[in-house]
Write a structure and sequence with these properties.
The protein starts with 9 loop residues before the first strand and ends with a helix. It is of the alpha/beta class. It has eleven helices and twelve strands. The strands form two sheets. Strands 2-1-3-12-11-4-5-10-8-9 form a ten-stranded mixed beta sheet, sandwiched between helices.
């Protein structure tokens, strides 16, 4: 974590992002200011805005800022199709060793298909099939006749994410950790993950329960009975899929924050895309980025401010019935933020 400025605010990098990113970022910063401006922002660009400003979707000045502050909040970033640019999000994870991706899924608006969802996906973020060691084998003049990809899971990487998940469960008063794998088929690649879980879990006996699930069974049970889950910890590809599935239980990615945490940095994000079709119209829902900033507050030891924000958001949605149009309301991005700010000030 970075240092503090002369007013005691914590230095952090702010990446507004592309499309609706600048709009939702502006709304989130306004809410944080109402909470007492806990962060001193160093604003940098990424994605398409990074290309326009510096010729790179992940400019060196942005990386330098995160290296200095070790803390960032980012809006959605677009990686251009073609042009030789790698995924910005993958580059950030690799650059800063952000091995843990934390994706809470908690019901904010009642009346949906599922009620009272409250679970957390902890995804290993830098190993698995997403290392993308890939190549083609040509046959009979077809250069892409065979595609081969290798996944990599290590004992150390498995232990690190499993310990993170169990520690998270204990620290946050969670009751159970479910280890998700495909060890019945991928006996080496995900077998090592389950094997390591059996070494790690006994150290938490009496503090938190644990069990394991094959990934396809877990996906089915998330639909049939999501309340059986508390904390789910899994490998990279499975975590990517299951965390989006869990977001679907609570209304979609517009409600889903994400935290990417490593030993030397932490980056918090709205996990949805840049939605260029509604950019500039002032109608985007800032909830995901607001909730990401709450995770960021908890990370820096300001759980009190995170609780105030979440309370204000819940009352805005469900008592004041002020919502953006994707949630059936009519509020603009800033109108929603202003309603949350009024609640923050009333609850102070």
């Amino acid at each position: 974590m970075g240092g503090q400025d002369k007013d005691g605010a914590i230095e952090a990098t702010l990446i507004p992002g592309d499309g609706i990113g600048p709009e939702i970022t502006r709304a989130v910063v306004a809410v944080l200011e109402a909470l007492g401006s806990p962060f001193a922002w160093d604003t940098q660009q990424g994605g398409l805005a990074g290309i326009e400003a510096h010729g790179d979707p992940l400019p060196g000045v942005t990386l330098d800022s995160i290296r200095r502050t070790r803390l960032a909040l980012k809006g959605p970033l677009t990686t251009p199709v073609g042009g030789g640019f790698r995924s910005v999000n993958v580059r950030l994870r690799e650059e800063f060793g952000l091995y843990a991706n934390v994706r809470p899924a908690k019901t904010m608006v009642p009346g949906g298909r599922y009620e009272d969802i409250d679970l957390v996906i902890v995804r290993e973020n830098v190993e698995g099939l997403y290392v993308a060691f890939e190549h083609y084998i040509p046959i009979d003049g077809d250069p892409h006749a065979v595609a081969i990809s290798s996944g990599v899971n290590t004992r150390a990487g498995s232990r690190r994410i499993l310990e993170f998940a169990f520690d998270y469960a204990v620290r946050n008063g969670r009751k159970k950790v479910t280890v998700v794998h495909k060890a019945n088929v991928l006996k080496a690649l995900t077998g090592i993950f389950l094997e390591t879980a059996k070494e790690v879990a006994p150290r938490y006996a009496g503090k938190v329960e644990w069990d394991d699930r094959i990934v396809d069974a877990c996906a089915m049970q998330l639909v049939l009975d999501p309340w059986r889950f508390d904390v789910i910890v899994t490998t990279n590809l499975f975590g990517d899929i299951l965390s989006d599935q869990a977001a679907g239980l609570i209304g979609g990615l517009g409600m889903a924050p994400g935290a990417n945490i490593g030993a030397n940095a932490a980056i918090f994000e709205a996990v949805h895309g840049s939605a260029p079709d509604i950019a500039g119209k002032g109608v985007a829902n800032p909830l995901a980025m607001l909730l990401a900033s709450a995770l960021m507050l908890e990370h820096v030891g300001r759980g009190d401010l995170a609780a105030r924000m979440r309370t204000a958001v819940a009352k805005t949605l469900n008592r004041d019935n002020i919502r953006t149009r994707d949630l059936g309301g009519a509020a603009s991005t800033m109108e929603f933020a202003e309603a949350v700010i009024r609640r923050v000030r009333n609850e102070a």
